[in-house]
Design brief:
The protein is of the alpha+beta class. Helix content is 17%, strand content 38%. The chain contains one helix and five strands, in the order E-E-E-H-E-E. A five-stranded mixed sheet has the order 2-3-1-5-4, covered by helices on one side. A hairpin with a 4-residue loop joins strand 2 and strand 3.
Length: 81
């Protein structure tokens, strides 16, 4: 597993989310999208995947996290503080 903190630039982290998987897991880094690829167990319905992304990255990074942009997209930008 890669270290997502290596890809935080100006308190922002770009991620590409694959919802509805078996477990929460960081797969790697996509150089074309310039985003960390992450599998999330929650489905992309009723904001469940977004909540799981925030919870997962808050725990992983040990920092506060919120979604800055991409609320309805698989490609999101997180604000880390």
């Amino acid at each position: 597993m890669i270290n997502p903190t290596d890809y935080i630039i100006d308190n922002s982290l770009r991620i590409f989310v694959k919802p509805g998987k078996k477990q929460n897991y960081v797969l790697g880094y996509d150089y074309q999208k310039r985003a960390v690829i992450v599998e999330i167990s929650a489905i992309a319905q009723d904001n469940k995947a977004n909540k799981e992304v925030v919870k997962f990255f808050s725990k992983l990074l040990k920092k506060r996290v919120r979604i800055k942009s991409g609320h309805t997209s698989k490609l999101k930008t997180l604000f880390v503080y």
